[in-house]
Amino acid sequence: MxxxxxxxxxxxxxxxxxxxxxxxxxxxxxDAHDGDTVxxxxxxxxxxxxxxxxxxxxxxxxxxTDSCVLRFLHFFPSHQKTLSVGARVRVxxxxxxxxxxxxxxxxxxxxxxxxxxxALTPVYPTVAALPQLYLRKAVLSGLNRADLxxxxxxxxxxxxxxxxxxxxxxxxxxxxxxxxxxxxxELEDRSHPAWQRLKAEELLAQQLSQLQAxxxxxxxxxxxxxxxxxxxxxxxxxxxxxxxxxxxxxAAQQRVGxxxxxxxxxxxxxxRLLQGDVGAGKTVVxxxxxxxxxxxxxxxxxxxxxxxxxxxxxxxxxxxLEPLGITTAWLTGSQKTRQRREMLALIESGAAGLVxxxxxxxxxKVRFNNLALAIIDEQHRFGVAQRLALRSKMTxxxxxPHLLMMTATPIPRTLAMSYYADLDVSTIDxxxxxxxxxxxxxxxxxxxxxxxxxxxxxxxEGRQIYWVCPLIEESESIDLVNAxxxxxxxxxxxxxVLVGLLHSRMPVAEKKAVMGLFTEGLMGVLVSxxxxxxxxxxxxxxxxxxxxxxxFGLSQLHQLRGRVGRGAAASACVLLYSTGDAPRLSQTARxxxxxxxxxxxxxxxxRRDLEIRGPGEFLGAxxxxxxxxxxxxxxxxxxxxxxxxxxxxxxxxxYPDLAERHVLRWLGGKAEYLKA
Length: 676
Ligand code: ADP
Ligand code: MG
Prior knowledge:
This protein is of the alpha/beta class.
């Protein structure tokens, strides 16, 4: 129950059935069709244990209109007893036409007789070792005990709605135990009035909690990072940095830079998501924010999800910022103790203006002198707890650091606006000039040799190639075999070319060595198992081959493709696919590959991804800070969302106690996490 999050009576009451079973009637066998799931009642006329390839119990049941066979592959002596010849039993299962005539495999059964229930029987989502019967009783008891009194003031319950809502108690009672004559389609597509009420409640709770979080944040203080701490004749660090850059900022970079600058000058903590397609140039925007922070006399921390990414930032930012006299500290898990101690001292004394690293940045031992800005790259890869930990590194009581989160997997704007009342979003919607668009091709695995020939051509032109092998999450060892074989095959096919292999289980030092060779242009081809380590910036790489592309998610594919096309040379992405034993790819796999061929635009990709997967999953996978909506769907329930958005601020102002109760009911202990 703990695993399912079922702690309070309310949680149980809100644990809704996955589906229902109709045990309200008994069907006559002669009226039932193959494929129907039915409940029948009859007499056992035959029972035997059949030995064969698999030992099984076979029982023949006759209900007076026809007979059928019940088959059990797992059974206990007690089963045999209940199902002995002459016994009258009530059986429920799916009727199938089998070799022995009509049969049911592993039906549920019990002695016949007893009253039929008046409502459909709920089947709840559960976990191993939590039996359905037990859960049913627990939910029923929870439903009776829970405080389901009205939290939404009556004036809102019929506001701008096609039909007024029923009460929450009525809705829940109905959804747990619907009358047998309900249109099942209304339950399935959640259009039934009871569902409407429930989804409206959930959306309202989500909007209220985001608004609350926003108000809490607005009440918090952060250092206002306005101007240089020591004013002299010099221009600001930002201006110096801009001066030194080998390129001019794009208009989009300037715009988001200004948005961030405005936030940083305020006394309330910034909470901003910086989204921009891969290669859009988020790093320099982060560097400018860091420069402003350091200029004002405060420390800035930048956290990246992997050591390679962190190191890449480190190198780049060092090359930009150290010439300006900024000391940068570097923290990772694999560091030697002595170096680490030196770094910790730099951070604690405040000598280091900028601290870059992996999760190591948020460890207890790390004490900042005066942290004012925390930047998180690829923020969706960090959990909520880690973000909270970073924010708690602010040493001054009652103050919070400003928070800048960067992501290359954009959320469609409307979705972001409606979902994250608490988050400001800045978008870099333009790529730096001079990039040639990447050409994407979908190629059948059978034509692998042609791809290798193309690699040879690219190498001759002095280019470099990434080859990414699939990610099978359940089995990293299979990945490894794939990648190792590909590595060997490519090495053999490309004599004289250095082909490297990178996978997640290599020691960090080895990973770095391989990455180093590739970055410096000494390695022609890099075979990699994992998408994690390829968040790198090697402008000379011009071809990305993705093996078993059909197994990757759309945003992953797009991220990977973004590793090429960073220089001026024409770049390409080859999506190798295999249908395996199937005659063709699944529909969603085809839709993903098609989207990749048709567009290079990260926002369009995100839109298609949303279309293919639906917003629940879309947000759930990315934004661990916000709770996934369990019942409502932002797209199909746009009307309810509009209602919730209109009601939430008014309710929070006029009925704060009810609002509090409403949020608590829905989010329980989770509300704390929403603030992250
Ligand atoms: P991402 O947004 O994916 O993190 P990066 O910040 O790594 O992208 O930038 C990608 C590349 O583009 C880097 O090599 C960076 O130096 C370069 N770059 C960034 N901004 C510009 C610009 N305005 N003009 C030209 N190149 C730029
Ligand atoms: Mg980046």
